[in-house]
Amino acid sequence: MAKRNTTTKQLILDSLKNSKSAVSQEILQKELGEAVDRATIYRVLNSFCEDGIVHKILGDDGKYYFAVCVNCSEKKHKHNHFHFRCLSCGKIECLPNEMEVKLPEGYQSVNFNGFISGYCANCSNSSLFKQQ
Fold first, then answer.
1. Is the pLDDT of residue 95 over 60?
2. pTM for the predicted model, two decimal places
3. CATH architecture for the domain at 7-130
4. Domain limits of the chain?
5. A Pfam family name for this chain (predicted)?
6. What is the full DSSP assignment across 18-43?
7. Is 85 in contact with 24 (CB distance < 8 Å)?
């Protein structure tokens, strides 16, 4: 059965696509304001994950963040890349290099959650770091 594309789903998807980094449900809620309630955002984000539209990232702060998938489908979610969180500006981004992890024979990977925190190029080039 085909899933309906509602105005609410489109608002959430547009917000994710326009974001320059992965965003949490809280960030989406602030951006969308009264237009969409918290439970609906949660439900739509999980639906997008199942459909291969977005992937979920567990941050080192214990929160989940969501980023738009590139070349994924409902049948094949492939996100063997690290994610980076800037400790200064809070931006979370997908790093471009895919990682290959060799598992023992008979093992099958379902999820990869590589996470690095530090300072992004913009923040590490700020005057704060240049003074040190």
1. yes
2. 0.78
3. Orthogonal Bundle (1.10)
4. 7-130
5. FUR
6. H-SSBEEHHHHHHHHGGGS-HHHHHH
7. no
